[in-house]
Automatic annotation (TrEMBL):
This is Excinuclease cho. Pfam families: GIY-YIG (PF01541). InterPro entries: GIY-YIG_endonuc, GIY-YIG_endonuc_sf, GIY-YIG_UvrC_Cho, UvrABC_protein_C. The keyword Hydrolase applies. GO terms for cellular component: excinuclease repair complex. Residues 27-105 form the GIY-YIG domain. The keyword DNA repair applies. PANTHER family: EXCINUCLEASE CHO, UVRC/OXIDOREDUCTASE. It comes from the Bacteria. It comes from Pseudohaliea rubra DSM 19751. GO terms for molecular function: hydrolase activity; nuclease activity.
């Protein structure tokens, strides 16, 4: 039975760390990286407790499979402590897509994303059209969802059409003339058969897509999200400043002046995972907000109120 090496070298952000096993890692939020004997990056993960999560990985080496093969090659574990879960999520997501670890199953390299736009169709019926974001375009507007492919966008539309009784024919998802097949099954309210006006169908389509609409970036400048640890573990940052512009993550810093210096950098490409991580944090009020340009504290337009305890590990 294969098992990981008895002695594993530990580092913290590339610098040697005392110890040879998971028990010697800090028990705090952060990102961890597994490297093989040749220095190749095997895996990137995150946890609110690095010590506990890596210990779970090593126990999994007893069971045959993909993870056992990865852990058998493991020679070094690097940890990157963060002030809290938000920083760990942002750092993990950025690392996976920039560093391309061998064993991460999730999407490693950001691909071009698709959204939906409503365009006029025959008879005044609006038709959702899948549109690809150009490379490097920031998420500053409020598109109707983010999808990994044109096919995924079309599948989502078909699901919404079935759930809301919308007509796939007037939506442009099905060819032919006259009443659609779904109308014959009483799953379409009859836009294709003259039973529902374009105005009524369009209104129901807009309502069905409302939940897909992404929030526009509500700030004029880059934003600093302050995250604090309630009781910092040894080696854990007491606080971090996450720099965000147009829903794009620019980096995390333990000094506010360092964070402000890079806030003028150009926004990166649209990233669905980053958007959802940040929106969730803002809605929970997990962090304090500060304008990077003026250093002023800002109100949270998403309703969440910062809780100083939520940055705790």
């Amino acid at each position: 039975m294969e098992s990981p090496p008895d002695t594993i070298r530990l580092t913290r952000r590339g610098r040697p760390l005392a110890g040879t096993g998971a028990a010697d890692l800090p028990a705090c939020a952060g990102v961890y990286r597994f490297f093989d004997r040749g220095g190749a990056l095997l895996y990137v993960g995150k946890s609110i407790d690095l010590r506990s999560r890596v210990s779970t990985h090593l126990r999994a080496a007893r069971s045959p499979g993909r993870e056992q093969r990865m852990l058998h090659a493991l020679a070094r574990i690097d940890c990157e402590p963060c002030a809290g879960e938000l920083g760990a999520l942002l750092r993990e997501n950025a690392a996976i897509k920039a560093e391309l670890p061998l064993y991460n199953r999730r999407q490693r390299r950001p691909r071009r994303l698709w959204t939906l736009q409503l365009t006029p169709g025959p008879g005044g019926f609006l038709q959702p059209a899948a549109t690809c974001f150009p490379d490097g375009e920031a998420l500053a507007d409020a598109p109707l969802g983010l999808y990994h492919s044109e096919q995924q966008a079309a599948a989502r539309l078909r699901t919404l059409a079935r759930a809301e009784g919308l007509c796939v024919r007037v939506l442009g998802l099905e060819g032919g003339r006259g009443p659609c097949f779904q109308f014959q099954l009483r799953r379409c309210r009859g836009a294709c058969a003259g039973k529902e006006s374009a105005a009524a169908h369009n209104a129901r389509l807009r309502a069905a897509l409302a939940d897909q609409r992404l929030a526009a970036w509500p700030f004029e400048d880059a934003l600093l999200l302050e995250e604090r640890a309630l009781r910092p573990a040894p080696g854990q940052p007491r606080q971090q400043w996450h720099v965000i512009r147009d829903w794009s993550y620019l980096g995390s810093f333990t000094r506010r002046d360092s964070a402000r210096r890079i806030a003028g950098a150009r926004s990166g490409p649209v990233d669905r995972d980053t958007y959802h991580i940040l929106l969730g944090a803002l809605r929970r009020g997990a962090v304090a907000l500060r304008c990077a340009a003026t250093d002023r504290c800002l109100d949270n337009p998403f309703g969440g109120r910062p809780d100083r305890d939520e940055g705790a590990a």
